[in-house]
Design brief:
With about 1200 residues, this protein is α/β, with parallel strands linked by helices. It has 41 helices and 34 strands. The strands form 11 sheets. It has a 5-stranded antiparallel β-sheet with strand order 1-3-7-6-2. A 5-stranded parallel β-sheet has the order 14-18-17-15-16, with helices on both faces. It has a 5-stranded parallel β-sheet with strand order 19-32-31-20-30, with helices on both faces. Strand 17 (about 625), helix 22 (about 635-645) and strand 18 form a beta-alpha-beta unit.
C-alpha cells in the first residue's frame, strides 16, 4: 500500500514529526522543500494544507505555509487555534486511568462491608476497570503517502532537477488525494447518540492538515514519503461549529485511497517523463506491485531490505578474520560470519542531509547497474510523449465491463462489500490506463464503481422513514445513513448460500443404522481410544440424520479426528470400503486427513479441477468429509454439495466457527452452524495437559475477556515492546527445542515471522546444526543451507517425494544445497524415500524458513508447546488458534507498541498506558470472521430498525424542528441579551432543548418554569449558563405534573422518548410521526419475540393479569422495559441490566424501573384478586354439589 493511516493521540505525540526536521532555514532560492534543504541535516519543516485552513485565526494560513512547533502543539497537542489559542469546539476529553477509576469506586464502597465481601468487590471492580482500559483523546490521523519503491529509487539517484520534478509529482498527487478525501470521505457526527457516536453524519468545511516530507527509511534506504497529519478538528457546513472528524470513514477508505494515490502519482510521473509501468509479483501472500518498467527489480531489491547492514557487518568481520589469521575464510566460515552479522544490533538511524544520502545511494546503485546511476536515471526519464486518456475516451461498454469485473474480483474474496471495497478494486483495474488529469481518473473510477453497484445486490434496507430537507445531502441521501455505508453482495453468493441452507435441511441422504454405530463406538480404535459421551452423541446424530449436508463442530483439541475415524469405520461397515472420501481447503490439510483416517483425500480446488477435466465425481452412498470447513469458500462448498446431492452422497463439514475463516468469500460454515439449534458439537477438550487450560481454552474460544486473568495467573502472558517480545518468544522456543520438545513460534506479522526465522537460523548456524559451504537465497531475502527447516509454499505434483508430492505448507529438512541453487530436502520426520530435489526457480520463489509460522499455517498443528507473538492487529480467531496448539503450554508474548516501519521507535499515536491485558482485550473484541450474505441481511435489518437508532433520529429531528421555539423561550426567560446569545451559542444548548422537550412531555408549563429557574440564582460563576439551566431543569421537572391519582401520564413514545409537541414544519412533523410509529412497532415486536421465545427476562415479569384493564397496563409497562433493553442493548437475564452511568440512560432507566414497579404492583393485585376468587369458587362448587 502507498497510503497507511495511524491514529494520533492528544499530548506530545506530534513531536515525533519534529525529531528529524532540519535546523535553520536552508537555501530559500531552491524550488521545493526537499531541494531547499538539500544540504541541511534532517528533513524539511512541515507545511500547512487543506481547504479548512481559512477557519483558523484570521484566515492568514495558506497551502504551503510553514508550520512552527508551537502551532503544531496548539492544534494537534491541545485542540486549539494555532494563531489565537482559542479552543476549537470542545476541549479534548480527559480520561481517567484505570487505577484512578478503581480508586474512586473502591472509596465509594459501603464501609460496612466485611473483609471477604470487600475483597470480592474490589477484585470485581479491578477486573471491570482493567477491561475498560485507558482511553486517549484522538488528536488527529497520520496518513503516510509513499511513492512506489521503483519511483523512490529513481528519485534517489537522479540529478537535482529530476529529483525536484519527481517531488513535485509526489506533492501534487498527495494534494489531489487529500482534496478527494475532503469531498468524499471527511465528515463529522451531530445529533443524538444511539450508542456508537452521534446519529447524523454531516459535511464539513474541508480538512486542516500539516505535511512533513521524509526521504529515507529507518534502514537509510530511499523512501520518499510524506506524513499528512489531519487534525481531528473540523467545522460543519451546517452551523460552522467545530466538531470532531468522523474516524470511521477514514478507516474504511484507507485501502481505496492508497490505490487511488498510486494511480494518480503514476499519471503525474508518466505525464512528466513518459515512463511506462508494469506489475511485478511480490510473493504468494502479497498483491502484485506496480513499478516503473525501466527500473530493474535487482536495483529495487538493493534498497528494500536490511541486507546492506548485514553485508557491511559481514565485510567487517571478514576483514578482522583476515587480519587475525592471515588468510581468507572458507565458505563455511563465511556463512557463520554472516550469521554473526545478522545478530548485530540494527544501527540507530542517523540524520543526514539529502545531499549525503544521494551520494551514498548513487554509489550503491552504480555497483548494481554497472554504469553511472545519474546517467542511467536520465535514460529512464527520456521517453516519447505518452498517450493519455480523457474520461470520454473510455466507451460505456468498457466501463460496464470493468464494473462486472470489479464485482467478480471483490466477490472472490468477500461475501459482502461496500462502496470503498469496490472503489479500491476499480482503482486497481484502471491503474493500467494513464489519464490526462486526475479529474478524468476520478470520473472513470466513479463510473466503474456505479456500474459495479448496479450489478450487485443491496443488502442494507432502504430508509425506513423520510428525512426532512435539512437532513438530506445534495444527492438526496439521508444524513442518518453514513456515506458509502450500504452493504452489497452478489446473486451468485446469495443463491449459493440458499442452496447450502436447503441441503442442510434436506434429509434424503444416505445413513448408517444406529445398531452399527453403537457397535463401533463401544470398541476402542487402533490406538485404544474410546469415544467420549459428546463424541458418541455427535456421531449418532450425524449417522442417522439423513441430512445431505451435515456438520461436526468442535473447539481445538476436542477430538474431531477421533470422532471422524469412528464415523469412517461405521460408514464403511454398511456402505463398503472406499465409501468415505476426504476433502480439505489446502493440500497439507488433505494430507493430514488422509493419514489420520486412511482414506483418499484431495484439496477442494484440485478436486473441482479433476471433476471438470476428467469427470471425477462422488458415488451414491458415499460420505464426503470436508475437514477445516471454516476455511472453505462459499462457492467451493456449494459446488461440492450440489454434486453430492445429485449422486446421492452425504457431505459432512467438520470445523470450528471460532477458528480461522476462508480466504475466499466465506461465512458459509458459520451460517450453517447458526441456522440450526441441534448442531452436533464436541465440548470436551482432550488436547491439553492441564485441566485449567482445557476450561480456559473454551472461554478463549467464546472471547470471555476475564479468561485473560486466568492465563496471567499461570504466567502465560508476557508483555513489552515488539523487539523484546520477539527475543523472549524466541528464547523460550529455543530452550524447548534444545530440550527435544515439539514446539512452534506463531505470529500474524510477516515481518515478525521473518525476524523469528532469521534469529532461529542464526543460532543454529553458530551451534553447527545448520552447516555447509553453500546457501540458497529465498524470496524474502533470507537464506537456507544444509540443516535448515523450510516450508514449501506452492503445490507442485511434478515434484515427487516418495509416494507423495510437494505441497503448500509441507515442512522439510534441507539435506544439501547444490551449486545452481537447487535444494535437496527430506520431509520432516520422513525417511530417505521422502526426499526430493527442489529446482532453483522453485527454491527462489516458493520456499521459506520454517521455524516460525503464521496462525493460518499453525491451524491443525499439535505440539508440546507454542509461543505466540501477539499485537493489536490480531483477531479473536487467529489468537485462539495460536493459543491452542501446545499440549503442555501456550504462552502469549504481547507487543504493546508496534514499531513504525519507516522510522525508529513507536508511532506517536501509540497509547503510553497500553498494557498486555488491554491489548488482549481488544484482540478478543476484534472479530475477523466474515458474516455470510444471509447473516448480513439480518444484521443490517436489525441495526437500522433498533429503537437506539430510531430514537436518536427522532430526537435529532425534534431538536432542529423546535430550535427556534426554544430559542424564543430562552429570550423571554429573564436572561440578559449577552447571556441569551451565550446560551444559544453553547454546545450545551442542544442537550438543554432535549430537556425542555422532556419537561413539556411531563406537562410542565415551560413559560413559567424556565423564568423561575433562571431567576432562582445568578450565573456570575457559571462556566456554561446553558449547562447550569439544564441541570436545574432536570431537577425541577423529572416527574410528570401532579401527584397520586391526579398525576398526568407523560407523553412518551414506548414509555421512553419524550414526544415533540407544538407546531413544526410539515416535513419535520411527517418525519417525526413516522419514527414515532416505528419506535412503537419495534418495542411491540421486541416484546412479542421475548414472550414467544420465553426469554429469561420476561419470566421475571410474571404472567400478565387476566383482567383486560390490568393486562393492558401490564402490556404497556412491559413494552417500556422492552424498549429500554433495545435502546441500550441490554442482554442480561435481569430485565434492566446494570445501573447506568450516563445521565440520559439513567433517566430512561428510571422510567423502565417505574414500569417494572408497575408490573409488580399489577401482579400483586392479581394475586389478591385470585385469592378472593378461590374461596368463592369453592363455595359455589359446594352449593352445586
Amino acid at each position: 500500500m502507498t497510503v497507511s493511516m495511524r491514529v494520533m493521540s492528544a499530548g506530545d505525540g506530534h513531536k515525533y514529526l519534529l525529531r528529524t526536521v532540519a535546523a535553520g532555514d536552508g537555501e530559500r532560492n531552491l524550488s521545493t522543500p526537499l531541494t531547499r534543504y538539500y544540504n541541511a541535516d534532517g528533513t524539511p519543516p512541515g507545511r500547512w494544507m487543506g481547504s479548512g485552513l481559512p477557519g483558523l485565526g484570521r484566515g492568514q494560513f495558506h497551502d504551503g505555509d510553514g508550520v512552527t512547533e508551537a502551532q503544531l502543539q496548539l492544534l494537534i497537542g491541545m485542540g486549539r487555534d494555532p494563531v489565537t489559542g482559542e479552543p476549537l469546539g470542545r476541549a479534548y476529553p480527559a480520561y481517567k486511568s484505570a487505577p484512578e477509576r478503581v480508586g474512586e469506586r473502591v472509596s465509594a464502597l459501603d464501609p460496612e462491608l466485611g473483609p471477604t465481601a470487600r475483597a470480592r468487590a474490589v477484585a470485581a471492580i479491578e477486573a471491570e476497570e482493567s477491561e475498560r482500559g485507558t482511553r486517549r483523546a484522538v488528536a488527529g490521523y497520520d496518513f503516510t503517502f509513499s511513492v512506489p519503491k521503483s519511483a523512490s529509487v529513481l528519485w534517489a539517484v537522479a540529478d537535482a532537477g529530476t529529483q525536484s520534478l519527481i517531488v513535485n509529482a509526489h506533492h501534487a498527487a498527495v494534494a489531489e488525494v487529500v482534496a478527494f478525501m475532503e469531498r468524499e470521505v471527511a465528515a463529522t457526527r451531530a445529533g443524538a447518540t444511539p450508542g456508537d457516536g452521534a446519529v447524523a453524519q454531516v459535511d464539513v468545511r474541508g480538512l486542516i492538515a500539516t505535511a512533513y516530507d521524509h526521504y529515507d527509511s529507518r534502514s537509510g534506504d530511499p523512501h520518499l514519503h510524506t506524513h499528512v497529519v489531519i487534525s481531528n478538528k473540523v467545522q460543519t457546513v451546517l452551523d460552522n461549529k467545530w466538531r470532531s472528524l468522523d474516524g470511521r470513514p477514514l478507516h474504511a477508505a484507507t485501502v481505496a485511497l492508497s490505490e487511488i494515490h498510486e494511480a494518480v502519482f503514476a499519471d503525474h510521473l508518466t505525464r512528466l517523463f513518459g515512463v511506462e509501468w508494469e506489475t511485478r509479483e511480490r510473493g504468494r501472500d502479497r498483491n502484485a506491485a506496480w513499478a516503473i518498467a525501466k527500473v530493474p527489480e535487482q536495483l529495487v531489491s538493493e534498497f528494500s531490505s536490511r541486507s546492506r547492514h548485514i553485508d557491511e557487518e559481514k565485510d567487517r568481520l571478514i576483514a578482522a578474520y583476515v587480519e587475525k589469521h592471515g588468510r581468507q575464510p572458507s565458505s563455511t566460515t563465511i556463512i557463520k560470519l554472516r550469521a554473526q552479522a545478522t545478530l548485530a544490533t540494527r544501527p540507530e538511524k542517523e540524520i543526514h542531509s539529502l545531499a549525503e544520502l544521494t551520494t551514498q545511494w548513487r554509489r550503491r546503485a552504480g555497483k548494481i547497474l554497472g554504469v553511472d546511476a545519474t546517467h542511467w536515471a536520465c535514460s529512464v526519464t527520456a521517453n516519447e510523449v505518452p498517450l493519455l486518456l480523457r474520461a470520454d475516451d473510455v466507451p460505456l461498454d468498457v466501463v460496464r465491463g470493468l464494473g462486472q469485473s470489479v464485482v467478480t474480483a471483490v466477490g472472490e474474496k468477500r461475501s459482502t462489500w461496500r462502496r470503498w471495497n469496490l472503489t479500491a478494486e476499480a482503482a486497481r483495474q484502471t491503474m493500467r490506463y494513464r489519464f490526462a488529469n486526475t479529474r478524468d481518473r476520478e470520473a472513470i473510477i466513479g463510473m466503474v464503481v456505479d456500474a459495479a453497484e448496479a450489478v450487485s445486490i443491496r443488502l442494507t434496507p432502504p430508509d425506513l422513514a423520510s428525512s426532512p430537507a435539512v437532513f438530506r445531502r445534495n444527492d438526496e441521501s439521508s444524513v442518518f445513513r453514513p456515506k458509502n455505508s450500504t452493504v452489497f453482495s452478489s446473486g451468485e453468493l446469495l443463491d449459493a448460500e440458499e442452496r447450502l441452507l436447503q441441503l442442510a435441511h434436506t434429509t434424503t441422504g444416505p445413513t448408517v443404522s444406529l445398531e452399527t454405530v453403537e457397535r463401533i463406538v463401544r470398541k476402542p480404535d487402533r490406538e485404544r481410544l474410546v469415544l467420549g459421551e459428546d463424541q458418541t452423541s455427535a456421531l449418532m446424530e450425524i449417522a442417522v440424520s439423513g441430512r445431505i449436508v451435515d456438520l461436526l463442530v468442535g473447539p481445538a483439541g476436542a477430538g474431531k479426528t477421533t470422532a471422524m475415524n469412528a464415523l469412517r469405520r461405521a460408514w464403511e461397515k454398511e456402505h463398503g470400503k472406499g465409501a468415505v472420501v476426504g476433502l480439505a481447503p489446502s493440500s497439507s490439510a488433505a494430507q493430514v486427513l488422509a493419514e489420520d483416517l486412511g482414506i483418499a483425500t484431495e484439496n477442494t480446488a484440485k478436486w473441482w479441477q479433476n471433476h471438470l477435466q476428467a469427470g471425477v465425481s462422488f458415488q451414491p452412498g458415499q460420505l464426503v468429509i470436508v475437514d477445516e470447513a471454516s476455511l472453505a469458500g462459499t462457492l467451493s462448498l456449494d459446488r461440492i454439495t450440489q454434486l453430492a446431492a445429485e449422486v446421492g452422497a452425504k457431505v459432512l463439514l467438520v470445523g470450528d466457527y471460532a477458528q480461522l475463516q476462508a480466504v475466499d468469500a466465506g461465512g458459509a460454515f458459520g451460517l450453517l452452524t447458526h441456522d440450526r439449534d441441534d448442531v452436533p458439537e464436541l465440548v470436551d477438550v482432550h488436547r491439553f495437559t492441564h485441566n485449567w487450560e482445557k476450561r480456559a481454552s473454551l472461554d478463549l474460544r467464546h472471547a470471555h475477556t476475564d479468561v485473560i486473568d486466568t492465563y496471567d495467573e499461570h504466567n502465560r502472558i508476557v508483555d513489552g515492546d515488539t523487539e523484546s517480545m520477539i527475543d523472549a518468544a524466541y528464547t523460550a522456543w529455543r530452550t524447548d527445542l534444545l530440550a527435544g520438545r515439539a514446539t512452534v513460534l506463531v505470529s500474524d506479522s510477516n515481518e515478525s515471522v521473518t525476524a523469528l526465522n532469521n534469529r532461529a537460523r542464526t543460532d543454529l548456524i553458530l551451534d553447527g546444526t545448520v552447516r555447509g559451504t553453500r546457501e540458497s537465497e529465498l524470496h524474502d531475502g533470507t537464506h537456507a543451507a544444509c540443516g535448515d527447516t523450510v516450508i514449501t509454499r506452492r503445490n507442485d505434483r511434478r515434484l515427487l517425494a516418495g509416494r507423495s508430492w510437494v505441497r503448500n505448507g509441507d515442512r522439510w529438512s534441507v539435506v544439501d544445497v547444490r551449486r545452481d541453487g537447487s535444494m535437496l530436502v527430506r520431509r520432516t520426520g520422513g525417511s530417505w524415500g521422502s526426499s526430493v530435489l527442489l529446482p532453483t526457480e522453485y527454491v527462489a520463489e516458493h520456499v521459506e524458513l520454517g521455524y516460525a509460522v503464521t496462525s493460518f499455517r499453525a491451524q491443525g498443528l499439535t505440539t508440546d508447546t507454542a509461543y505466540a507473538l501477539v499485537d493489536s492487529t490480531m483477531t479473536r480467531e487467529t489468537f485462539y488458534v495460536a493459543m491452542t496448539r501446545g499440549r503442555d503450554a501456550n504462552v502469549a508474548y504481547v507487543a504493546v507498541h508496534k514499531p513504525d516501519p519507516s522510522h525508529d521507535g513507536p508511532h506517536p499515536g501509540q497509547n503510553d498506558e497500553v498494557t498486555g491485558r488491554s491489548v488482549l482485550i481488544s484482540v478478543l473484541q476484534h472479530v475477523g470472521a466474515e458474516l455470510s450474505a444471509h447473516e448480513t441481511i439480518a444484521v443490517e435489518q436489525e441495526s437500522w430498525g433498533t429503537i437506539a437508532q430510531l430514537a436518536a433520529e427522532y430526537e435529532t429531528i425534534a431538536a432542529a424542528a423546535q430550535r427556534d421555539r426554544w430559542a424564543a423561550l430562552v429570550r423571554i426567560s429573564g436572561l440578559t441579551t449577552e447571556e441569551v446569545n451565550e446560551v444559544i451559542g453553547s454546545d450545551a444548548f442542544g442537550p438543554l432543548t432535549a430537556e425542555l422537550r422532556r419537561a413539556e412531555a411531563n406537562h410542565h408549563d415551560l413559560a413559567s418554569v424556565l423564568p423561575r429557574l433562571v431567576g432562582a440564582r445568578g450565573f456570575g460563576d457559571a462556566d456554561d449558563i446553558a449547562a447550569v439551566i439544564r441541570h436545574r431543569l432536570i431537577a425541577a421537572t423529572a416527574r410528570p405534573v401532579g401527584s397520586g391519582r391526579s398525576r398526568i401520564a407523560a407523553r412518551l413514545i414506548a414509555g421512553l422518548v419524550p414526544e415533540a409537541m407544538g407546531s413544526v414544519a410539515d416535513d419535520m412533523r411527517q418525519a417525526l410521526d413516522e419514527r414515532r410509529d416505528l419506535i412503537t412497532q419495534r418495542a411491540d415486536a421486541v416484546l412479542g419475540k421475548a414472550i414467544a421465545d420465553d426469554a429469561q427476562w420476561i419470566a421475571s415479569l410474571g404472567e400478565a393479569p387476566a383482567a383486560a384493564s390490568g393486562r393492558e397496563r401490564w402490556q404497556l409497562a412491559a413494552r417500556t422495559i422492552a424498549a429500554y433493553r433495545d435502546r441500550y442493548a441490554v442482554t442480561t437475564p435481569s430485565p434492566l441490566g446494570g445501573r447506568p452511568e450516563a445521565t440520559a440512560q439513567r433517566i430512561d432507566h428510571a422510567r423502565a424501573e417505574a414500569a417494572f414497579t408497575e408490573i409488580r404492583r399489577l401482579n400483586a393485585a392479581a394475586k389478591v384478586a385470585q385469592s378472593h376468587r378461590e374461596p368463592s369458587e369453592r363455595t359455589s362448587e359446594g352449593r352445586v354439589l
